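Dear colleague,

Thank you for sharing your sequence with our group. We've completed the structure prediction you requested, and as agreed, I am returning the results in plain text so they can be pasted directly into your records. Please verify that the sequence below matches your submission; if there's any discrepancy, let me know and we will rerun it promptly.
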Amino acid sequence: MIHRLLVPGLLEGPPDGVDRTGLPRFPVLERFLARADEGRAEGDLEALVTGFYGLPSGQGAAPFCYLADTGRRPESGVLRAFPVHLRADRDRVLLFPLDETLLDREEARDLANGFNSHFADEGLHLEVARPHRWYLLTERLPATPLASLGQVAGRSLRDFLPDRDRFWLSVINETQMLFFNSPVNQARERAGRLPVNGLWFDGRGSLPGVPLRGPGRGEGDHCLLRGLVACTTEDNGERVTVMEDIHQALREQNASAWLQAREGLESRLHGMIHDAEIMLYSCDGRSWHWKPSCNRRFWRFPRPLPWS
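Please find the predicted structure tokens below.
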């Protein structure tokens, strides 16, 4: 059985301001990287995961995430709708995601209700699954995929707008005006909190009409993986684990969480390298293939990790 392990941020150093001279070594990971066969695996985390199930590169994640988060199959096309904060910066507008700690469920539902009232005649329906995970149900999907939230985050909104799709450009722009006038945001600003002044849509698609064949076991709280496993009727015997803790700690600039996530990965690898076949992905184009026989490659000496 192949165990596919996805670890975004695998080779990235600790959050800013951390004294790197006092960081511990991670000898199991160092040995793994030195003795495994290194290769290429193009695509981000979601592209890799959908590829494990034989889905085409254009298949969006939204319908699988919707299934995982709600327990229901979407009856139409669906997009993920991320609540975001838009900030003016000279002659551009920057987009920043809002995570679960910055938005509560009641606020999310009030904003969604306002959106649904405004766009009812356009056949758009916004549904809140979690405070920071919303879904837009519609038969009128964008003609071409919008950039993922990860690609847009922290960058100029202008560079990613669907200028050739007038309908979706108007939805994005009207949502900004709608949310700007929302009582929810007026209350948030009075309380000194960031306003939710926009939505970003990605992952467009519908569930495939045929059963999936792929890994029948998944581990990790990633909605795409959970949705794919739920749609899989033919298990190919592989296992997929998504570990986003390192990447999350870097986003939050949380040094203790980064170290804890590193220790968790070290412990997991220690329990696997003696008898498991492993494909490790850093989700930035690199991969490492490990077989138990790699333990005997004594001539490949472990090297310190990039930040050591």
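Summary note from our side: Residues 2-59+209-296 form one domain.

Kind regards,
the structure core
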